[in-house]
Amino acid sequence: MANYLNLDYKTEATRPHWQWELEKTGITHAQAGAYLLGIWGLPNPIIDAIMFYINPSQSANPSLSELTMTHIASNLVSCMDESGISNAVEEQLDFDYLNNLGIESRLDDWKQITLQTFHALDA
User: pTM for this structure?
Assistant: First the structure.
């Protein structure tokens, strides 16, 4: 774990950085963060939102929650560039999870809100 902070995952842009973290260290930043949040006494919904935001289907509590919104927001923001939200977001979102919650149809609205928010910040 001592070398965890020195990892240079940015040189490998062909896959999500959490996959690289898992391969190199045995844990992801989400797992490490959730562990710390637990030690610090944060509520379970917040811990779950961090622990499972990469793969929300792994959560034992499949409901519209902090986890859902963290998963969506993280992926929308990470897939933004100058021209908008790239198609890579389609590969990163857990559509089985979103479908099970019945919210996949709201994705386009959330994309627009995300873009509007960041354009307003740039103004």
Answer: 0.82
